[in-house]
Amino acid sequence: MPSLLNLVACYIPIGEKVNAFSIYLNWLRGRFWDLLFCLKLCKCLYMGEVKCVVIAGYGTNCEEETAFACKRAGARADIVHISELLYGEKTLDNYHLLCFPGGFLDGDDLGAAKAAATRWRYARVKGREEALFEQLMRFINEGKLVIGICNGFQLMVKLGLLPGINRRYGVQSATLTYNDSGRFEDRWVYLNIDPNSPCVFTKGIDKLYLPIRHGEGKFVPQNEAILAEIEERHLSVMKYINPHTNEPTLEYPFNPNGSINAIAGLCDSTGRLLGMMPHPEAFLHFTHHPRWTREKLPEEGMGLALFVNAIDYIRQNLL
Amino acid sequence: MPTRIEVGFKSGIKDAQGEKIAKRIRNFLDIEVDEVKTVFVYTIDAHLSQEEIELVASGPFSDPVIQEYAIDHPLSTEFDWMIEVGFKPGVTDNVGKTAKEAIEWRLSRKLNPEEKLYTSILYLLKGKTLNRDLVEHIATELLANPLIHRYHITERTKWDGSVLLYVPKVKLIKEPTVQRYNLSLMSDEELLELSKSRLLALDLNEMKAIVRYFKDPKVIAEREKVGLDERITDVELESIAQTWSEHCKHKIFNGIIHYTDENGNSRVIDSLFDTYIKGATDRIRREKGKDDFCLSVFKDNAGVIKFNEHWNLVFKVETHNSPSALDPYGGALTGIVGVNRDPFGTGKGAKLIFNTDVFCFASPFYDKPLPPRLLHPRRIFEGVREGVEHGGNKSGIPTVNGCIVFDDRYLGKPLVYCGTGGIMPAKINGQPSYEKQAKPGDYIIMVGGRIGKDGIHGATFSSEELHEGSPVTAVQIGDPITQKKMFDFLLIARDRGWYNSITDNGAGGLSCSVGEMAQESGGAELHLNKAPLKYAGLDPWEIFVSESQERMTLAVPEKHLEEFLELAKKMDVEATVLGRFTNTGKFQVLFEGKTIFYLDLEFLHHGVPQKEMVAKWSPPKHPEPEFPCPQDLNEMLKRMLGRLNICSKEGVVRQYDHEVQGGSALKPLVGVWDHGPSDAAIVRPLLDSLEGVVVANGICPRYGDIDTYHMAACALDEAVRNAISVGGSLKHMATLDNFCWCDPILSEKNPDGDYKLAQLVRANQALYDYTVAYGVPCISGKDSMKNDYRIGDIKISIPPTILFSVIGRIPDVRKAVSMDAKRPGDLVYILGITYDELGASEYFHEMGFIGNKVPQVRAEVAKKLYESLHAAIEKGLVASCHDCSDGGLGVALAETAFAGGFGMEIDLRQVPYEGIRRDDFVLFSESQSRFIVTIHPENREEFEKTLQGNILARIGQVLEEKGFEVKGLKGETIINTDILSLKKAWQQTLKGLWE
User: Fold this and answer.
1) How far is B321 from chain A (nearest CA, A)?
2) What is the per-residue burial (b if ≥16 Cβ within 10 Å, else e) of B812-832?
3) Radius of gyration for the alpha carbons in chain A, expressed in angstroms and rounded
4) Phi-psi region for residue B742, left (φ > 0), alpha (ψ -120 to 50) or beta?
5) Least confident stretch, A16-20, A222-226, A261-265, B742-746
6) 3-state SS assignment for residue B627
């Protein structure tokens, strides 16, 4: 039943309350004409629910809206404080999608997500004979999905999960460093999606318009060879573009941080791990858009599609 | 033996920070420099093996892709001059703290509390023309603040190639002691001297009230039972001083004022606060009857109103002026993370949903010599901006709205208003969330940071020179992450019902927080020696009144104690039991088992004598400006748009995260190119709902040069009309008052104190009149009364300043309206009458005058207009709406046009206007309660019908092309330009500051 409720919930526009059970049923009846909805419903009833875990604590601050995005996409989402993992109260094993949301882990004091990467790499789980990193690697090796947004992307890169060429996880081969401007900025950016990328989150999406909110988002690969491999394998799934030319750009402010090759987001070679500086969870509803008062926009924000893709993938492959 | 690790960028990697510093050296200090490189330094004072040091240097301390490191030897020798900047002993070093934690994770073992890490930054400068004087200037004027930083300059040619090894450890080698004073044996002079030497800020009257209490035989008898005598301990004296401080007891607002007006009529006002502020709110609540949405006003750390059936809103704005004058970064950072704790410590605690900040500075281009000890306004601006950036962004709270006011009288003291809103469920475990009640037997628990000497006597700046051996006490640096961790934990504890009461440790530290909560239960017993310290050697009174940041005090009942402490430990949050709440009527404090403080709560909280003051109002008379209407109004409009108080602040706004938490519904920057200045912000705190919170501010200190009555009225009107213009409604709107004044107490040193107090009285009268007229109650507030600078013969007083911050509810954010013109062909309206009210306007200031005709608010007319406009917005008839404020009609029209990316043609003859008929007056008058509205032509009839009974006029239309043309009162074209050049003028002024 919870899976059904999750699925139904994501069909109700934000702000419309469907509280009383009879209204619920009535509303549901109206929906049965929607073939796609029925298909999803059947599958959902048959297969069980998609479970997402959103990691919080130590300065993470986008966990609520990231969990909300998962729910809007039809999944269950639990916000789990990292201490719950470290004390063995919760484990990643029970989930399908792992979200590292945005924030300022440990204040980004040693460089973005550096201290947190040390914690994820070396901390041991109390009461279990394993390191947290082993749990994380098991999660990845079971074919599950990981998304890191902003600070979460920084964490994934510094943990060596991305670009993760040939599944060489755990060795850092790129970084995200200070913006060329030397300052934190909140602004919306236009992004192109590489249609040939193995990324499962971006299937069917060709463009995105999302906000960036960071001071350390400049992508720098360790060397030319790594960069070449990233490009060759289409791992640079998301690039900042100049909206007038639609081409990847180094021009400020379209490329807000000076990222090499305009790289805004990166996946690993399995396509199941995605990291991105822009915030998809910040554009779920048209009122998030900076110009919604002057443009005609669809009800749903562009960021949701990434979560919907992830959850569809899980339904098809992991349930 | 300490170890030093230097970390820097590999060659070929851009050093953005270094480049930024180099630019500032060139642009701000006018010093030629070829290059600046930065190197980060960790000084490790801990027992680590060589191998372990190598591990941490290559691991968490450096990024292998872009950085390299050196252990105990210099990373680079490529420089002409080198400046190392680190903290003085005892100053919060957030990075050092994180670095220590990272070592612990990396090595999988805990270091002991004595083992510490310290950080500093090396600036490697290259430049042929640099010399020691110039480098010293760069160090003190840009890189280091001698109050909190130490710096060390090295010249390459005289350098032996060694590295500096310095450990800024606090060494206090002394036993904690308690001093005792027999006040009854002291003369008046001695009492005053004691107050002065201990920085108590108590006057003779107040000292004598303390003497009387300690002479009472009953008091002495009770004290003797606990091992004390008729002598007061320094713990008691310090605590009374904190509790009775202006900051905590608002003695000026609660005093008796003998007020004489301009006609010589006198009256006695018994408490400005009760008479005007609380008086108005009480009346508004009565008049609203069952529509009253106030839940908790004036009694808690913040005000609480209803949001909807299931949720309450909490709001507070604080000031942090003096600390920001001394250390702009630390002062402002502490200001924002400090005000965060107010809504969090209100009722049972609120989740924080937005910040709003208002700053008042002198011009960043100030070019006269600076009086001693003052920092350049540009440095204050950048420091405050950065402090609020780190405080807000790192706490994950969106900074949704704010403004910056420039006036050179803020040179002596900048004003830093920091505000935070929160949301809490209407009920928590079946209890109203806005109420709290510590119960006898509950444990007193301190949660969060540790106690150091930082912020002792925070309100008073110590004139004592700060030297290497003495930790800094005057200023402090906040730590948003420690606080965030604490809030994450406390929200869980709140929802599980684990505590009965909560409050923050701000001014007065434990002394005030426990003292206040003790009133709820009827007493408290506190064991000071249990308090966790940053370093040993603090005297008990210091522990008691220290204002070290990131701490909350809670009342936890016995049955939840264990689970409370256990979860805190798991979530890496320090929580310590310090004692228990009682119902003895006494506040008792012990140190290692001995009582060192024993006071009746009644005396502590209600023993302060009421102040008596005089106020005398005589309206100032300024020369009436005489100048002809300028020939070139094109140029004049551009000059107006470029004025500091009007120009674009986008550079600041973009550095604040205004979207985190996913509820942003109307951003601070709007329009076709995302840089139009939004009048107010709207956030949607509940992600699955479309209900929004409207946030707006109003501030106009210039009008106070003529009359603070109208200044206060205009500030409130501005805040309200900003909220109205985006879709807010008078029906569900509350405000906070925030007074920053210059010393209003008449004395030899302050001969016009009675005038300044009269200004305060008049501002309060306006507050009463207009909040009542609009039905917008004050729900909380703040005052900061001594914003003067005086060294030697130089005295700089701020202009009396009042900020109103408004919070309201909008049922459906999809109805919100932004200020940018939407479509060519849309009709442009002005709502409200324009009078020739240019007194203290931006225009008169531009022309070098003040004048006398200050804008006035006609409340009846305004209220009707606000209700009608709200109805029109509700019906979806309004395409754009922008309030007319600084710079008047001309500025508002230009902003509407260029934010929309469309031109405009306007006819001033259509503007409803009263007064001396001049084109420049119509364009730049700052009459209140006016809006520029654009509507789609097909809505014209319906719009005019909805606005019926109000004064409004169609004055032009939006154009497809970029031209901006205004016809004057005689029908000829007086402005003929284009929006791009207007926009450029508006964006130019502050641009250089951010590049």
Assistant:
1) 25
2) ebbbbbbbbbbbeebbbbbbb
3) 19
4) beta
5) A16-20
6) coil
| DSSP state letter for B456 | T
In the chain, the amino acid numbered B281 is T
Alpha-carbon distance of B63 to A110, in angstroms, equals 9
- What 8-state DSSP symbol labels residue B295? E
Check residue A30 and give its pLDDT. Answer: 63
* pLDDT in the model for residue A25: 65
Q: How far apart (Å, rounded) are the C-alpha atoms in residues B809 and B811?
A: 6
Query: Chain A residue with minimal CA distance to B492?
Result: A81
> If residue B905 lies in a helix (H) or strand (E), which one and from where to where?
strand B903-907
CA distance A39 to chain B (A): 25
Q: What's the rounded Cα separation, in Å, for the pair B513 and B493?
A: 19
> Which of A5, A54, A61 best probes binding to B when mutated, by most B CB atoms within 10 angstroms?
A61
State the pairing for strand pair B733-740/B778-784: parallel
Peptide bond into B64 cis (omega under 30): no
DSSP secondary structure of B538-607: --HHHHHH---SSEEEEEE-HHHHHHHHHHHHHTT--EEEEEEE-SSSEEEEEETTEEEEEEEHHHHHH-
The identity of residue B579, as a single letter, is G
Q: How far apart are CA B324 and CA B360, in angstroms?
A: 11
Nearest to B471 by CA among B529, B531, B546, B544: B546
Catalytic residue among B47, B73, B152, B247: B247
Pick out chain B residues at pLDDT < 50: 459-471
Residue B667 contacts A where some CB pair is shorter than 8 Å: yes
CA angle B363, B365, B371 (to 5 degrees): 75
Q: Which residues contact B552 (CB under 8 A, 6 or more apart)?
A: B341, B344, B345, B446, B447, B448, B486, B490, B502, B503, B504, B505, B513
At B81, phi and psi to the nearest 5? -135, 150
Residues of A carrying an active site annotation: 150, 279, 281
A252: CB partners within 8 A, 6+ apart: A180, A181, A258
How many Cα atoms are found within 13 Å in the side-chain-facing hemisphere of B10? 12
Size of interface A-B (CB pairs under 8 A): 197
Inter-chain CB proximity B655 and A188 less than 8 Å: no
Query: Hey, are the CB atoms on A83 and B570 less than 8 Å from each other?
Result: yes
The Cβ of residue A43 has, within 10 Å, a number of other Cβ atoms equal to 16
- Asked if the bond preceding B372 is cis, omega within 30° of 0, the reply is no
CA distances from A106 to A66, A99, A116 (A): 19, 18, 7
Ordered DSSP codes for B433-450 = TT-----TTPEEEEEES-
Q: Residue B697 has what pLDDT?
A: 98
**Mapped to the 3 state alphabet, what secondary structure does B556-569 carry?**
ECHHHHHHHHHHHH
Query: What span, in angstroms and rounded, lies between the C-alpha atoms of A311 and A301?
Result: 17
The helix/strand count (H/E) of chain B reads as: 30, 45
Dihedral sign, Cα of residue B321, residue B323, residue B325, residue B331:
negative
Q: How far is A288 from chain B (nearest CA, A)?
A: 6
In sign, the C-alpha dihedral spanning A77, A83, A88, A93 is positive
B323 at interface of A, judged by CB pairs closer than 8 A: no
Please state, in angstroms and rounded to a whole number, the distance separating the CA atoms of residues B128 and B777.
63
Distances (CA, A) of B166 to A110, B44, B119, B241: 20, 10, 10, 38
pTM, full prediction: 0.94
DSSP-derived letter for residue B500 is S
Inter-residue contact A153 to A276 (CB < 8 Å): yes
Given phi > 0 = left and psi -120 to 50 = alpha, else beta, which region is B296?
Answer: beta
pLDDT, position A44: 63
